[in-house]
């Protein structure tokens, strides 16, 4: 697993504190890296280490809201459940979900949508319609349900909203 040095040291600290064993890397993106760990009960969890604190706190707060509302599914798609978080290490530990799922809330906003211009929103909708093709109407319903919880998801793509029929 090839992680940035800043994340590698935080991963070591986090796994020691939480008594986790690193199993494998799960993915890397613009916001950070996700690893699969095993806990003392030998259950697998995902731990996301953020590169930037602003995205970390947005995502942490979304998971706290989902936890407070006891949300585990949105429009039939699984949502990871918050297990633990560490503000100093910018780490969010969550359950692992398989398709159909909705995950990755680092680009989400609470209680208000991002302050984009009408032109940016138009281009965003056109791009998402193209990205999701025939699933775009369902994705719009998913986004509307999240908005009913006060969660506005700006970073939506087929990698973080996945249906059974796409790979």
From TrEMBL:
Protein name: Protein kinase domain-containing protein
């Amino acid at each position: 697993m090839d992680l940035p040095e800043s994340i590698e040291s935080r991963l070591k600290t986090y796994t020691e504190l939480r008594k986790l064993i690193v199993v494998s890397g799960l993915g890397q993106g613009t916001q950070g890296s996700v690893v699969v760990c095993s806990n003392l009960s030998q259950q697998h969890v995902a731990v996301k280490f953020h590169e930037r604190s602003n995205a970390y706190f947005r995502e942490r707060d979304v998971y706290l809201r989902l936890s407070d509302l006891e949300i585990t599914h949105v429009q039939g798609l699984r949502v990871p459940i918050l297990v633990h978080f560490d503000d100093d290490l910018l780490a969010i530990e969550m359950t692992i979900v398989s398709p159909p799922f909705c995950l990755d809330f680092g680009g989400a906003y609470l209680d208000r949508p991002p302050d984009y211009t009408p032109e940016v929103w138009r281009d965003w909708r056109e791009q998402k319609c193209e990205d999701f093709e025939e699933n775009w109407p369902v994705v719009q319903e998913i986004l509307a349900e999240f908005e009913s919880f006060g969660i506005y998801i700006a970073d939506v793509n087929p990698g973080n909203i996945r249906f059974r029929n796409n790979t």
